[in-house]
């Protein structure tokens, strides 16, 4: 089994594309974008299409798609991170409802862009199954669906499935039911990233790799190869933001790890079902997420080592043996028929987690500074809506998007170390205890609720 190497998705394409040149020296641009993940590239895409004359320069520390955008679980999700209440002060449930609808439409928007530019990224609109492994998880799902109804989501957006209905779709051992939403698609993350990078270059955007930005200042991005002066500088660095001067406690890099099997034999697929290739997760506090790939593998991810002291980030995704063993065991427990299948690759990456677990987007015309991020584990689609929002903010064109309740939010900073490390490690170890207690008792645990309210995650 391979590990690291930026993960299976890039490896399946024969590795990342040949490196692009670094920034040749100081330059002037209309917009400088720091970070070539989905946020940076979608922002470049929408700006370049809106105003083809703009000089847009993307500065990437490593290679485009080096971060989470090249390593994720491939859920193009119409849902987004953080508790609804955190978004409500911006305009109440109506504004929240608008945000939710725009996110649902974002799945369609991404599909339309891929079609427009001939980007083949294994996109499949099979929807999402949140599977309950036991009665306690089913109770969680029932609560989530009721909460969604109160926020205006309909049966067509999210509904419960009984165990029988689930089994007709996919046979998951120990499942007692599920929720289903059509507003999620599957994608091959690196194909999406590579296609998007190619497309923005065709639109005249310049991408410079191996060009770390050391600091962002009003109208300037500082690199060792020179300063890029720009009307706007966009921070799109997500899980790596702590490396920027002045942003050390804005977002913590939380690890997520994945393993992927070899293609499963037809007989094993017959046992499992899953012809709809819905993306799937369980409903534990420390959940796993899965996809059935276009070439008949299962990719499964979850939280391994949650966080490294001092907001350190890993290199190319090397993954601890204990994390791999945990994911392998989960896969075998959910799909006993796949227990003997070899794993092909294991990798990890970092996502960006703000103190309140909610996305924020901001643009300050005075200093020419803009940012978007804090998607936690749901940035694949959210980065697209965030980018369209940044386009309108940067071009000074007020729109429905610029009034969405995640615009202008400024979450408080994380605690300094060692508090930050202790709190995050503590939260995840308590969540694991809550999951174990719920498996034993079959009832939602009080501990889980307490940790939810302490962490602010739910
Ligand atoms: C294992 C894993 C599974 C996930 N699964 C899903 C999923 O299924 N669905 C979902 O919606 N979300 C998922 N996520 C989250 C999702 O991948 C991210 O939210 C999303 O990719 C964020 O995109 P981004 O462009 O903001 O950040 P990134 O993709 O992390 O890009 C940031 C880029 O900035 C560069 N950079 C950082 N600092 C600097 C600097 N100082 N100078 C220049 N460049 C810099 C980095 O090298 C990187 O390329 C997952 C994340 C991980 C790690």
Topology:
Blueprint: E1 2-3, H1 8-11, E2 27-34, H2 38-50, E3 56-59, E4 75-77, H3 84-87, H4 92-116, E5 128-132, H5 135-150, E6 159-162, H6 163-169, E7 177-181, E8 184-186, H7 189-202, E9 206-208, E10 213-217, E11 220-223, E12 226-235, E13 252-261, H8 266-272, E14 279-282, E15 288-292, E16 298-302, H9 321-334, E17 343-353, E18 360-364, E19 369-373, H10 379-394, H11 419-441, H12 446-455
Parallel strand pairs: 1-17, 2-3, 2-12, 3-9, 5-14, 12-19
Antiparallel strand pairs: 4-8, 5-7, 6-7, 10-11, 11-12, 13-16, 13-17, 14-15, 15-16, 18-19
Helix pairs in contact: 2-7, 2-10, 4-10, 11-12
Overview of this structure, please?
The protein has 458 residues and is an alpha/beta fold. Helices cover 33% and strands 22% of the residues. The chain is built from twelve helices and 19 strands. Strands 1-17-13-16-15-14-5-7-6 form a nine-stranded mixed sheet, with helices on both faces. Strand 18 and strand 19 (369-373) form a beta hairpin. The chain starts with a strand and ends with a helix. Flavin-adenine dinucleotide (FAD) is lined by residues 34-40, 59-62, 66-69, 71-75, 77, 212-213, 236-240, 243-244, 256, 258, 289, 301, 349-351, 373, 375, 377-381, 383.
* Ligands, deduplicated: flavin-adenine dinucleotide
Number of helices: 12
Number of strand elements: 19
Major β-sheet strand ordering: 1-17-13-16-15-14-5-7-6
Helix content: 25-40%
Assign an overall shape: globular
Structural class: alpha/beta
User: What fraction of the residues are assigned to beta strands by DSSP?
Assistant: 15-25%
In round numbers, the mean pLDDT is 96
Low-pLDDT runs of 5+ residues are none
What Rg is obtained from the alpha carbons, in whole angstroms? 21 Å
Distance N to C terminus: 35 Å
Oligomer: single chain
How does the major sheet shape up? 9 strands, mixed
């Amino acid at each position: 089994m391979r590990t690291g190497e930026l993960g299976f998705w890039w490896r399946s394409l024969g590795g990342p594309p040949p490196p692009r040149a670094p920034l040749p020296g100081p330059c002037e641009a209309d917009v400088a974008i720091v970070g070539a993940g989905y946020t940076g590239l979608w922002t470049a895409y929408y700006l370049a299409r809106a105003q083809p004359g703009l000089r847009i320069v993307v500065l990437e520390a490593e290679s485009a798609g080096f971060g989470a955008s090249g390593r994720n679980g491939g859920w193009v999700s119409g849902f987004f991170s953080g508790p609804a209440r955190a978004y409500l002060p911006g305009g109440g449930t109506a504004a929240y409802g608008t945000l939710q609808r725009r996110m649902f439409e974002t799945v369609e928007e991404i599909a339309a862009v891929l079609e427009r530019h001939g980007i083949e990224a294994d996109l499949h609109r099979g929807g999402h199954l949140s599977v309950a492994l036991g009665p306690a998880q089913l109770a969680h799902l029932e609560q989530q669906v009721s909460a969604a109804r109160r926020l205006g989501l309909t049966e067509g957006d999210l509904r419960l499935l009984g165990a029988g209905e689930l089994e007709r779709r996919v046979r998951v051992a120990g499942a007692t039911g599920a929720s289903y939403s059509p507003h999620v698609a599957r994608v091959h993350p690196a194909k999406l990233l590579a296609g998007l990078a190619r497309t923005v270059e065709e639109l005249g955007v310049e991408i410079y790799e191996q060009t770390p930005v050391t600091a962002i200042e009003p109208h300037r991005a500082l690199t060792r190869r020179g300063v890029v002066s720009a009307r706007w500088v966009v921070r799109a660095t997500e899980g790596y933001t702590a490396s920027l001067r002045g942003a050390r406690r804005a977002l913590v890099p939380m690890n997520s790890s994945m393993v992927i099997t070899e293609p499963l034999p037809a007989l094993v697929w017959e046992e499992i079902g899953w012809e709809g290739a819905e993306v799937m997760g369980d409903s534990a506090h420390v959940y796993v997420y899965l996809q059935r790939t276009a070439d008949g593998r299962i990719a499964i991810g979850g939280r391994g080592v949650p966080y490294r002291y001092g907001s350190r980030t890993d290199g190319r995704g090397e993954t601890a043996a204990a994390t791999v063993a945990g994911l392998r065991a989960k896969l075998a427990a959910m799909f006993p028929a796949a227990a003997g299948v070899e794993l092909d690759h294991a990798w990890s990456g970092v996502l960006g987690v703000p103190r309140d677990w909610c996305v924020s987007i901001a643009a300050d015309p005075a200093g020419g500074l803009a940012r978007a991020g804090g998607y936690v584990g749901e940035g694949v689609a959210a980065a697209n809506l965030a980018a369209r929002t940044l386009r309108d903010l940067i071009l000074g064109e007020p729109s429905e998007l610029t009034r969405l309740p995640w615009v202008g939010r400024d979450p408080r900073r994380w605690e300094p170390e060692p508090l930050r490390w202790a709190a995050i490690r503590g939260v995840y170890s308590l969540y694991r205890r809550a999951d174990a207690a719920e498996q034993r008792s079959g009832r939602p645990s009080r501990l889980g609720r307490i940790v939810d309210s302490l962490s602010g995650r739910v």
